[in-house]
């Protein structure tokens, strides 16, 4: 008679992984089957495949390539599409996923290999809007200015962005035919313009949003806010930056 332990060991998990050998080659799918373990997530399954790269046909194959770092939904590195939804692989628990589990790279970004993508588009967008606080020198500048508590609370929510790229993957306006900077960069403009030091460069950031590929590229699909793993109020940020850029445009016309 089979015990509970042997039944648990016999349980299998099937994966269908979209692979690509290099940026120019065609993609293909490869199937893998693993022994189930309680508490498994997609990353631990990929680690198991890496340890023993044998596909469902019993053929030896190359280990699947992916990116990960913190394994606690903070770094954003393990973004991929799982069962049709862009998300973090470290937070995707096997028990909550329908099988076979289909894993693909996010297609908004160029594929480097397998599940590894090039997120330069997103990082270049952050450079474009100067998503940082400029500090002049490395000497001690003393304590920084304090933010009002009410402002600090909503700004903290925006600061949770981990540049995972999921919002860009979910946005229908971010694709190879457009140069739309995407919701993440727009939200970061709101964050840094709210900072007592960052607001010194507020007009530069607003000017960047008013350029081609800026905020006017948003189609208000609201996919971004639904997909964001951190629950960042991206559509609120976009609305606020719409108002800010409109005010800035009128001030520029009036020479104020």
From TrEMBL:
Superkingdom of source: Bacteria
Give residue ranges for domain 4Fe-4S ferredoxin-type: 152-180
Q: Which UniProt keywords apply?
A: 2Fe-2S, 3Fe-4S, 4Fe-4S, Iron, Iron-sulfur, Metal-binding, Oxidoreductase, Tricarboxylic acid cycle
Q: Which cofactor does it need?
A: [4Fe-4S] cluster; [2Fe-2S] cluster; [3Fe-4S] cluster
Root EC class: oxidoreductase
PROSITE patterns given in the database record: 4FE4S_FER_1, 4FE4S_FER_2
InterPro entries in the cross-refs: 2Fe-2S_ferredoxin-like_sf (IPR036010), 4Fe4S_Fe-S-bd (IPR017896), 4Fe4S_Fe_S_CS (IPR017900), Beta-grasp_dom_sf (IPR012675), Helical_ferredxn (IPR009051), SDH/FRD_Iron-Sulfur (IPR050573), Succ_DH/fum_Rdtase_Fe-S (IPR004489), Succ_DH/fum_Rdtase_N (IPR025192)
The EC number on file is 1.3.5.1
Give a Pfam family name: Fer4_8
Q: Which family does it belong to?
A: Belongs to the succinate dehydrogenase/fumarate reductase iron-sulfur protein family.
Q: What is this protein called?
A: succinate dehydrogenase
Protein species of origin: Paenibacillus vini
Q: What is the lineage of its organism?
A: Bacteria, Bacillati, Bacillota, Bacilli, Bacillales
Q: Which gene encodes it?
A: sdhB
């Amino acid at each position: 008679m089979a015990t509970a332990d042997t039944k648990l060991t016999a349980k299998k998990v099937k994966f269908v992984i979209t692979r690509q050998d290099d940026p120019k080659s065609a993609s293909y799918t490869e199937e893998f089957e693993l022994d189930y373990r309680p508490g498994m997530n997609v990353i631990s399954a990929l680690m198991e495949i890496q340890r023993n790269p044998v596909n469902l046909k019993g053929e030896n194959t190359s280990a699947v390539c992916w990116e990960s770092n913190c394994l606690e939904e903070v770094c954003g590195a393990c973004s991929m599409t799982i069962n049709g939804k862009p998300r973090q692989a470290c937070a995707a628990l096997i028990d909550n996923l329908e099988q076979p589990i289909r894993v693909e790279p996010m297609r908004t970004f160029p594929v480097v290999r397998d599940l590894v993508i090039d997120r330069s588009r997103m990082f270049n967008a952050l450079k474009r809007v100067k998503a940082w606080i400029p500090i002049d020198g490395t000497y001690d500048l003393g304590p920084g200015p304090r933010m009002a508590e009410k402002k600090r609370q909503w700004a903290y929510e925006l600061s949770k962005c981990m540049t995972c790229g999921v919002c860009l993957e979910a946005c229908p306006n971010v694709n190879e035919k457009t140069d739309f900077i995407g919701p993440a960069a727009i939200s970061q403009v709101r964050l840094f313009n709210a900072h007592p030091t960052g607001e010194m460069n507020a007009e530069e950031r607003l000017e960047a949003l008013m350029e081609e590929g800026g905020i006017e590229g948003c189609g208000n699909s609201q996919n971004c806010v639904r997909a964001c793993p951190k629950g960042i109020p991206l559509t609120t940020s976009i609305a606020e930056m719409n108002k800010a850029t409109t005010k800035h445009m009128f001030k520029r016309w009036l020479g104020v």
